[in-house]
Specification:
single chain, about 230 residues, alpha/beta, Alpha/beta knot, Trp Operon Repressor, Chain A, 2 domains, five-stranded parallel sheet, two-stranded antiparallel ribbon, 9 helices, binds 6-chloroguanine
């Protein structure tokens, strides 16, 4: 799976891409992540990428004549044109179902904005899928792009050690429950004991207990997910 990130701040991703599961997935060539600096497509002698809005108002708007050529060139550098996602708080709010859908793609392009947003003609010309990660405003789309990559690669075969574990994720297709409590050693800490049933070794009973705890927790914390 190939991710192309188009951003004004490619270095924001350095830490994320160089640690843990993501690094491992890249090293094992299960995913590829390429970054492009939108500024490299500025034709202006000062490498300007934004300008003040027509009609006045605060903030700066990303210039259509940088963003469109950037996306078009990056898109054309592979046979597969990929799925173009524009990060914006005005987009469709994504969920696990959308993430599952993305995990089936060969190529995903993540267009990250900064400042007050993109010139409207970027959307008119490129017709990206505009997506949001929730009802709050970020300074830029970069954090959202990392969240999307993070959620999607869990579902790419081989990325997690245990294929089963992403199938059991809360919010996945076929699972509308939060997970119940988990414990590891020590068995007693500050007087708090691990539930007896988990150390008893009866796997049927343990499964049963976990299923009940998952239901309880979902009822308590996310009644909106819970359907009887
Ligand atoms: Cl995807 N981008 C920005 N800039 N803000 C957001 C967002 C995305 N999702 C929620 N807020």
């Amino acid at each position: 799976m190939l991710f192309d990130i188009l951003t004004l701040f490619p270095n924001i991703f350095d830490g994320y891409l160089s640690e843990s599961l993501v690094k491992n997935a890249i090293d094992r060539e299960l995913i590829r992540v390429r970054r492009y600096n939108i500024r490299d497509w500025s034709t202006d002698k000062h490498h300007k990428v934004d300008d003040s809005p027509y009609g006045g108002g605060s903030g700066m708007v990303l210039k259509v004549d940088c963003v469109v050529p950037c996306v078009e060139e990056v898109r054309a550098n592979e046979e597969n044109r990929g799925r173009l996602l524009m990060m914006t708080p005005q987009g469709k709010r994504i969920d696990q179902k959308f993430v599952e859908e993305l995990s089936q793609e060969q190529r995903i392009l993540l267009l990250c904005g900064r400042y007050e947003g993109f010139d409207e003609r970027v959307s008119q010309i490129l017709q990206p899928e505009e997506i949001s990660i929730g009802d709050y405003v970020l300074n830029g789309g970069e954090a959202a792009a990392m969240i999307i990559i993070d959620a999607v690669i869990r579902l790419v075969p081989g990325v997690l050690g245990d294929e089963f574990s992403s199938l059991c994720d809360s919010f996945s297709t076929g699972n509308r429950l939060l997970e119940g409590p988990q414990y590891t050693r020590p068995r007693v800490y500050r007087g708090l004991e691990v539930p007896e049933i988990l150390v008893g070794g009866n796997h049927e009973q343990i499964q049963q207990w976990r299923a009940e705890e998952a239901v309880k927790r979902t009822e308590q914390r996310r009644p909106d997910l819970f359907q009887y």
